[in-house]
Amino acid sequence: MTAPIYKRVLLKLSGEALMGGRDYGLDNGTVRAIAEDIKGVVALGVEVCVVVGGGNIFRGVAGASSGMERAQADSMGMLATVMNALAMQSALERIDVPTRVQSAIPMSSVCEPFIRRRAERHMEKGRVVVFAAGSGNPFFTTDTAAALRAAEMRCDALFKGTQVDGVYSADPRKNPNAERYTTLTYLDMLARDLAVMDAAAISLARENKLPIIVFNIHEPGAFTAVMQGEGRFTTVV
Ligand code: UDP
């Protein structure tokens, strides 16, 4: 077994990643497959935490465009991420991966509140910590929350699971000539407006010298392979 390249990482999963082939909500098979991949990484001895998005259920901007106050709509978006976090916890626990959910919006009868030191202790004990409710603040995204939590938890890298195996010059699903980058700088990402993470998240990662690894979350075992330096991915440094 090849040694892992990082000791402690944060995995960002968008709501879309949990949707599989569906138009809305969660696809059980997809959530299960991702849980298996996380289990593989935990088995390498890597400490793993996860930030889940909520776009498969509700996005604040969509609510605001239909006339709702943005801050209110964002609260709904953050609650959507809690549902995804609970689904991910169930899938992980079903395959015997001890998991804790911590929410940035306290809801003590459902999960723990976000407490950085406690989250760190869970990870030291080999538990996967799933961070829910983003940053707890409206007008932010779960990408930014992922960069924030990764910095707070002193992670070695932020893994962004996407639909393709890295960052391309154009959408490879639409443009066959799109070129895949092996390495990029944070400034390249910002300057070329590559739609992988939002600018606030990239800036936060840059300030904290946090590498971003972009890989295909739907390729079975890709998270584990990339953790061993294998397979296809893009590193942003
Ligand atoms: N959200 C928020 N603050 C945060 C993170 C998320 O208000 O710190 C809300 C926002 O409305 C967002 C929704 O939660 O649209 C779902 O998160 P996101 O769109 O980032 O999910 P993803 O695209 O990763 O599925």
UniProtKB/TrEMBL annotation:
User: Predominant location of this chain?
Assistant: cytoplasm
**E.C. number, please?**
2.7.4.22
User: What is reported on the regulation of this protein's activity?
Assistant: Inhibited by UTP.
- Report a single Gene Ontology molecular function: ATP binding
Q: Enumerate the Pfam families for this protein.
A: AA_kinase
Q: Where does ATP bind?
A: 12-15, 55, 59, 162-163, 168, 171
Catalytic activity from the UniProt record: UMP + ATP = UDP + ADP
Kindly list the places in or outside the cell where this protein is found, as annotated in its UniProt entry: Cytoplasm
Tree of life domain: Bacteria
According to UniProt, the name of this protein is: Uridylate kinase
Organism, per UniProt?
Teichococcus deserti
Tell me the organism's taxonomic lineage.
Answer: Bacteria, Pseudomonadati, Pseudomonadota, Alphaproteobacteria, Acetobacterales
Q: Which gene encodes it?
A: pyrH
